[in-house]
Amino acid sequence: MYHYKFKKMKKFLDENFLLSNATAQRLYHEYAKDMPIIDYHNHLPPNEVAEDKQFENITQVWLNGDHYKWRAMRTNGVEEDYITGNKSDWEKFRAWAATVPYTLRNPLYHWTHLELQRYFGITDILNADSARKIYDTCAEKLQEKDFSVRGLLGKMNVKVICSTDDPVDDLNFHQQISKDDWNIKLFPAFRPDKAMNVDNVNTFNNYLSLLEKAANVSISTYNDYLAALKKRHDYFAENNCSVSDHGLEEIYAEDYTQTEIAGIFAKIRSGGDLTLDENKKFKSAMLVTFAEWDHEKGFVQQYHLGALRNNNSRRLKELGPDTGWDSIGDFPQARSLAKFLDRLDRNNKLAKTILYNLNPADNELFATMIGNFNDGSTAGKIQWGSSWWFLDQKDGMTKQMNALSNMGLLSRFIGMLTDSRSFLSFPRHEYFRRLLCNLFGEEIENGELPNDIDWIGEVVQDICYNNAKNYFNWQHIDEPAKKKSKV
Ligand SMILES: [Zn+2]
Q: Is the pLDDT of residue 478 over 70?
């Protein structure tokens, strides 16, 4: 009989998960683990934070709204009734549990078990057999006060979260939360996607009615429209907003004149359809306008580029957007992105900017693009954002950090964000930190980096927390123990 020589096998998801050597373990446990979290872009619902929602069971907090899990279930042959349909919460959970063993090597397998461990202390593997016990244990815990929405965020040592808000949003929930005695900040973010999307003139005109109401401005001309939007931008700033975000296939950077744009706007208002050329000119003008306002107010602007959305028209009709029918697009990014950033930089109107690519083929493109517009005014002024959506996993994050190291300064990186719709997704910061510490740990042990734990530990803490805190000017949030910085 053949004798297998196993080297010592690590336990699944133990305290040294993803940490392949002692130095990586030391960096994680002594430097990274206890750093607080700044989640500067996500899609958490502010109303649920305001009411401090308590969930009845894990389906409500874990499966409702998580289109990553929905895609996996569909791929595994689960009927839609058990995903977004009318089946009971328990039946939906059981269907997910039965799917989990088939998600091996998908990040969902790690997220799932990490989240069960960190929030509920459950170390069992989730599958059809363990489903009932895990469902009941979670349901019981979710009744406890510290498992409310705010309790869940508190468990993860979160300091700041930024939601994603439309210019017409009244921000009432944010106002309510800011008055509460709560040590986590929830800031709004200005995301004007609908305010510049003229693909469907009808939809856009309907949106303008909402904008008229929100801004209390009647909109007939392009100038009225700008005045209304500017009012909302000001209103967001008055409500502690200092971040904007855009979700676009690509940056639009056509040449245009203000007269042309005013004419295009008049055409929109009279219900006329735009040519492709007019459509792009209009979007180009709006992107510059928003960016100039962001610069004026010292906002940080974010651009999420490259998703090809709503590809399944039948399902879009049934379920609406953001339900799991999007994928990676192959839009050309470099030339228009450079032109757009240059337009702003040339006029000294380029705000701090974070660029996120969804297509991994654009990694090096983005890693080098940011270097074109770093002007020495602040460290890491132009950031290449952390791996996002389909790239938000071990391979994607590692590749992003390696390309950033090779072509930029990893040490000035503002690090991880969840971009999530779920209150249980914050262990993704831990996942990121483990990968980060492992990269440094391996190179220290290989002799590729000096064994200067004090310095590299400080860099790790910067990437986990301090860089983001300084970048967004959120020094006023609680600081960890002071440490001296190396010149
Ligand atoms: Zn997002």
A: no
